[in-house]
Structures are given as structure tokens and as C-alpha cells.
């Protein structure tokens, strides 16, 4: 599962990417961090792990991770091949979700490709390239379908769908806002892997002064919020530059620095958590003397498949899952107390695992 960071040149993508991977590289020793300079493994902040590590006196703590890809070089005309455009669009097609960085900070020393700060125009410039690229894909599909649709009912149905999506995109809309309840159509659509159908988070990159009120007094940020709301996306206000500074600090220094800025949590941490849930991912937890660990699963995963994340034998020999929610455990103070109150549940193979479930699997070997 990976996220692509996109945006026009000079909006702060690399700065954001560097602070993301720096923070990740420091808090965990993942050996893949530097294989590809554009791909970073980032740890997902989760204070539950710290609390559990303390409770169990665990020797080791292992957080969940997600992958970010820095997709630089997207410019106006990319869909027509400008500036290696097609290459970058192909990179976006491979990610599961998008973080779209938008420049909301003023700085006359840093040139904007279009000469002025206008976040909404920037978003539309990028999204238009994505829309063009999607239309091109659909046009190719349409040509194929036209040849066979006369004698093939399914092809005729698909052709109708393709033409409706093209009309929707040509109307200046994103594929994500194309509505259909038809199961076949939904299946076709997911096959096309359209760029404008991917989940998006907008990261509004502001100057330090705009952090304390979360961008409320920045007109550009407000416009981004309105746009995102219309398109069912979330907005996070960050300062990539500040995050880069924060990523060089240790935990105590970081806390002090944040207090000085008048904020509770770094924008980057919020962004990483939101990215994780944008991908439809949740964590279940295991905790003991040896290790406290977050395990990543898709929302809706059942207990045996969750067990399989730890070891394939756990899935094959699955008997039961002993489950307590994080909140219940914390409220009780100890595992024994939670058991006395009947809050430790024995769940079977149809149990759908929740975020924050602390699980002990019972299995046959
Ligand atoms: P990219 O082309 O989108 O990857 O942009 P960069 O990350 O290389 O940033 C372009 C320039 O803007 C660099 O000189 C950064 O130091 C600067 N920059 C990035 N983020 C911020 C920010 O939040 N505030 C200010 N003032 N400058 C920033």
C-alpha cells in the first residue's frame, strides 16, 4: 500500500517527503529506507504502542509503516508528454492514494511556476492533467468496445458506462464524483484504475505564522477547504519547512517546539495517520514482554486472516482469538482486571477485527 505525493514544482513536496522519511528513519530501523530515493518507509505514530510498551515492559516496540513516493515533475501539459509528463502520470497510477501538496505560503524568493500564489488554480492545474490522462485511457477503451459492442451485451453496457464517465470528466469533474450503484459498473470502473478516482488528501503548505490557527486566516487555505469538501476529501494544514526542522529533533525537544508554535500535534503526524486511514488500513496490536507491535490490516479483515499477518501457521491452525479493546484494557489497568470484568472476549473465525484490538491467537500447530 503506498501513497504518492504530487503537486506543482516548488510547492514543498520534497521538503515534506524528506521530513516524512527522516522521521520514519529515525524512529525505526527499516532497511528499505534508502533503496530508492523517491520511496520512503514511514512509521505510523500510535501512542497506544507507547502505553502498552510501558504496561508490559516490552523489550521492543514495532509500529505500523506505510510507503510514500515522491512524484516530482508534474507540470501543466504533463498529459501531453510535457517534461516527462507521461512517466510521472504512470507513477501516480501505481499508488493507492494521493497526497496533493498545495502551496499556500508566500515567499518572493521561491518562484512559483505560474508567477503567483493561487492554491485553487494550482489544484485545478494538476487535477486537469490527471483528468486528461484518464480521458485518454477511457478513449482507448471506448475504441476497443465500439468494435465489439454490436454483438456483445456486456461490451455494450460497458461502452455506455465509458461514454458517461468521459462526459463527466469533460465537464471538469473528477472520476471520484461519478455516481453509480450498478455492481458491474463499479467493477469495470475499478479495473480502469483512474487517477481521479483515487482517494486524495490535500496538504495545504503554509508558513509558520499560519499554524497556530490551523490556517483559518489564510484565504488560500479556506479555498482549498471548500474545494476539498465539494470533492469529499480532507485537508491538512502543515508547514513542510517547520516539519523538516521538527524531524531533526528528539522527542522532548519536539514537544517543546510544538508548544512554542501553539499546536498539540505535528501536522506531519496527523497527515501520516490520516493517510493510513485513507488507505482503508487499521492496526491490531499484540503486546508482551518481548515486543509490543502494531499489525496492519485492511478494514473488514476477519480474525484468521489477521492472524495470518503474523504467521501463515496462525491462519492455517486458527482456533480462537482472545481479544480485548485497547480502551477496555487501559480503563482496567491490567489484563487480569480486564479478565475479571469479563472484557476479554473469545472470538471465532468470523470475527471482524477492530482498530486497537489487542489480540492473542490460539492455534493448532
Ligand atoms: P517541490 O519542488 O515541490 O519538491 O518543492 P521543494 O520541497 O523543493 O520546496 C521548494 C522551495 O520552497 C524550497 O526552497 C523550500 O525550502 C521552500 N519551502 C518548502 N516548504 C516551505 C514552507 O512551508 N514555507 C516556506 N517559507 N518555504 C518552504
From TrEMBL:
Domain OBG-type G: 1-258
GO cellular component: a single term: cytoplasm
UniProt keyword annotations, A-Z: ATP-binding, Magnesium, Metal-binding, Nucleotide-binding
Binding-site residues for ATP, renumbered to this chain: 10-15
Residues annotated as domain TGS: 280-363
Superkingdom: Bacteria
Xref: HAMAP family: YchF_OLA1_ATPase
Role of this protein: ATPase that binds to both the 70S ribosome and the 50S ribosomal subunit in a nucleotide-independent manner.
Protein name per the record: Ribosome-binding ATPase YchF
Organism annotation: Eubacterium uniforme
Gene this protein is translated from: ychF
Amino acid at each position: 500500500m503506498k501513497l504518492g505525493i504530487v503537486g506543482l514544482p516548488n510547492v514543498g513536496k520534497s521538503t515534506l517527503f524528506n521530513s516524512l522519511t527522516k522521521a520514519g528513519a529515525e524512529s525505526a530501523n527499516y532497511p528499505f529506507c534508502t533503496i530508492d530515493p523517491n520511496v520512503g518507509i514511514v512509521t505510523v505514530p500510535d501512542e497506544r504502542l507507547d502505553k502498552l510498551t510501558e504496561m508490559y515492559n516490552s523489550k521492543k516496540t514495532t509500529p505500523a509503516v506505510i510507503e510514500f513516493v515522491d512524484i516530482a515533475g508534474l507540470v501543466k501539459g504533463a498529459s501531453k508528454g510535457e517534461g516527462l509528463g507521461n512517466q510521472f502520470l504512470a507513477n501516480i497510477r501505481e499508488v493507492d492514494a494521493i497526497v496533493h501538496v498545495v502551496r499556500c505560503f508566500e515567499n518572493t524568493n521561491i518562484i512559483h511556476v505560474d508567477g503567483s500564489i493561487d492554491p485553487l488554480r494550482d489544484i485545478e492545474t494538476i487535477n486537469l492533467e490527471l483528468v486528461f490522462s484518464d480521458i485518454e485511457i477511457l478513449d482507448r477503451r471506448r475504441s476497443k468496445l465500439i468494435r465489439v459492442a454490436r454483438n456483445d451485451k456486456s461490451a455494450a453496457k460497458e461502452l455506455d458506462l465509458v461514454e458517461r464517465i468521459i462526459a463527466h470528466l469533460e465537464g471538469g469533474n473528477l472520476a471520484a464524483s461519478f455516481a453509480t450503484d450498478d455492481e458491474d459498473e463499479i467493477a469495470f470502473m475499478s479495473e480502469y484504475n483512474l487517477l481521479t478516482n483515487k482517494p486524495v488528501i490535500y496538504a495545504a503548505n503554509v508558513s509558520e505564522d499560519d499554524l497556530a490557527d490551523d490556517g483559518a486566516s489564510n484565504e488560500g487555505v479556506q479555498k482549498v477547504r471548500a474545494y476539498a469538501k465539494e470533492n469529499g476529501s480532507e485537508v491538512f494544514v502543515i508547514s513542510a519547512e517547520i516539519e523538516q526542522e521538527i524531524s531533526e529533533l528528539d522527542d522532548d525537544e519536539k514537544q517543546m517546539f510544538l508548544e512554542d508554535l501553539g499546536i498539540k500535534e505535528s501536522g506531519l503526524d496527523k497527515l501520516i495517520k490520516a493517510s493510513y486511514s485513507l488507505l482503508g488500513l487499521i492496526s491490531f496490536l499484540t503486546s508482551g514482554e518481548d515486543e509490543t507491535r502494531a499489525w496492519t490490516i485492511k478494514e473488514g479483515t476477519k480474525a484468521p486472516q489477521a492472524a495470518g499477518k503474523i504467521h501463515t501457521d496462525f491462519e492455517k491452525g486458527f482456533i480462537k482469538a482472545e481479544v480485548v479493546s485497547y480502551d477496555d484494557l487501559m480503563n482496567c489497568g491490567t489484563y487480569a482486571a480486564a479478565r475479571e470484568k469479563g472484557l476479554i472476549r473469545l472470538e471465532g473465525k468470523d470475527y471482524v477485527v477492530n482498530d486497537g484490538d489487542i489480540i492473542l491467537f490460539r492455534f493448532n500447530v
